[in-house]
Amino acid sequence: MTSLKNKIVFITGASSGIGKATALAFAKEGAKTIITARRIERLEELAAEIKNKCNSEVLPLKLDVRNKEEVKNIIENLPKEWSEIDILINNAGLGRGLNKLYEDDIDGWEEMIDTNIKGLLYVTRNIVPGMVKRGNGHVINIGSIAGHEAYGGGSVYCATKHAVAAITRSLRIDLLGTGVRVSTVDPGMVETEFSIVRFYGDEERAKNVYKGLTPLTGEDVADAVIFCATRPPHANINEMIIMPSAQANAFIAYRTE
Ligand code: NDP
Ligand code: 8X3
Hints:
Elements: E1 8-12, H1 17-28, E2 32-37, H2 40-54, E3 58-62, H3 68-76, E4 87-90, H4 106-134, E5 137-142, H5 155-174, E6 180-187, H6 194-198, H7 203-209, H8 218-229, E7 239-242
Parallel strand pairs: 1-2, 1-4, 2-3, 4-5, 5-6, 6-7
Helix pairs in contact: 1-2, 1-8, 3-4, 4-5
Bound molecules: NADPH dihydro-nicotinamide-adenine-dinucleotide phosphate and 2-hydroxyethylsulfonic acid.
The site of 2-hydroxyethylsulfonic acid has 6 residues, from loops.
């Protein structure tokens, strides 16, 4: 098992859900976490929690992954002691709506494509060269079951997660022999703010997504990420699909009510 002590971990979308749980999980293992998202006040709160609970170093940074220049500047200007990133967690992402493609809102498509695909690419493009130079690193993408299956109303979200799956596979080939590993962790239903964001703040509709079953938590996914990150250097988890026990695939779930 590889120790995470003092490893520098850069996490996107750390202000909520899976990203937040993942930051805490790495911090508990003694890693130094760079936590990023747009809501800086939430990151400041998380940084305080990490310092108190885990007594590990943390650097909160406001970052919108859709902004190409901002991504480049933040990564180029990291304080020297934070600049040698060991592990990148590409987690920032969102879904917008569940409408039929031919009736859907185009702005939501732009948001999903800009965040889930382009944002992931910008961050990866700026961090991976340093890993290659040092001959060591690990990129862990948060994909989705929506990167393996396609469901009605999810054309663009599913397309973005299929893109993440393709990028993961191609990047792994590009990095062969460099010492940089690439993994993807692909969850089914996880109860976070994801559905609240997907339904533009409609909390009732969001709650119904998880009605009558026990969904995954951010912590469940964080556990899977830690498993990937702690494999010895000669072993790589290419892909991990993690689902609630009550969910068979993107379409079929067993609900008690
Ligand atoms: P949350 O809504 O709880 O968290 C999403 C995170 O992404 C927030 O921290 C948000 O921060 C950040 N984010 C969104 N847009 C941007 C942006 N433009 N720049 C930087 N950060 C951004 O949802 P989850 O934790 O569930 O989602 C995390 C990832 O997991 C996503 O990629 C999602 O697609 C994926 N996923 C989720 C599943 C689920 O069922 N919940 C299942 C499978 C995959 P802020 O708003 O502060 O910028
Ligand atoms: C989020 C899970 O099933 O809503 O990626 O696409 S799902």
